[in-house]
Amino acid sequence: MLVAITGGTGFVGRNVISHLIDSGHTIRAWYRRERPAEISGVEWVQGSLNDPDATATLVDGCDAVVHSAVTRQGQSFMNEPDDPIGYFETNVIGSLRLIEQARKSNVQRLVCISSGTVHQQVADDLPLDERHPLWPTTMYGAGKASLETLCHAYGLSGRLNIATLRPVSIVGVDDPVANSKWFDLVQKIKRGEQVDISGGGKVIPVTDLARAAELLLRTDKDIAGQTYNCTIGFYSNHRIATIAKEICGSDSEFCGEEKTSARQLHTEKIENLGMKFSDESEIRRIVTRLLNEPNE
């Protein structure tokens, strides 16, 4: 299968490409600035969201698309953009342009990467599953919620076989490694420093997310217009620090209060498609790799 990837040079995109190549697919992927190194099985094409010509070049002739690109304004995806109209035009209208091009090009399947930030406020009396209302409080969350509704509109109407993955905080070893979630915490443990273990959240290893994307590409079950939650559960900073101490034998001391999870995010829907999420051994593998990096 020839799969087009948006955001191919990003953290998620790189891991999706790696997994799909290992699974026997070929890739056509966007890059925005400097051309990446050549990878067997990958055709790099320059382009970005909301560019009509680049969108057509990426999608035409492909069997499927994985849409992981998002353009941010600032250092973090969660930063509120200085130009919210421009942000919305690039990310939401750009996504609509991609979806419509996929429809015109007779793409067999499109998988969009959403975000758990569509649930920045939740209802206490409702389960946190795919039927829960979308209540974002940031432009990033609002953009992802808008993307999900576009997927519903195109998929449920039969115009395109399109579905959405909704990951929570994505963890793994990034490049550069200092950008990885937990890197600073783990390095402090390695140096024997006192660490504040307050904080934590629901996580999904990036390798699990890549496997989930391929699952939606190859399943023979009806997924058109559907959204699928992705998480392996809640990890407090206390738990991550404890794992790091166990691995490296550090004598670091902890301060702060351990955070606990208030709500369970349900994943039965994608598990019913055959998804098997990683256990804690994957978290330990990530922490081990972060520990093996040189001290800052």
From TrEMBL:
Gene3D superfamilies in UniProt: NAD(P)-binding Rossmann-like Domain (3.40.50.720)
Alphabetized CDD domains for the sequence: SDR_e
SUPFAM superfamilies to which the protein is assigned, alphabetical: NAD(P)-binding Rossmann-fold domains (SSF51735)
Domain NAD-dependent epimerase/dehydratase, first and last residues per copy: 3-230
Recorded family membership: Belongs to the NAD(P)-dependent epimerase/dehydratase family.
Stated name of the protein: NAD-dependent epimerase/dehydratase
Source species: Rhodopirellula sallentina SM41
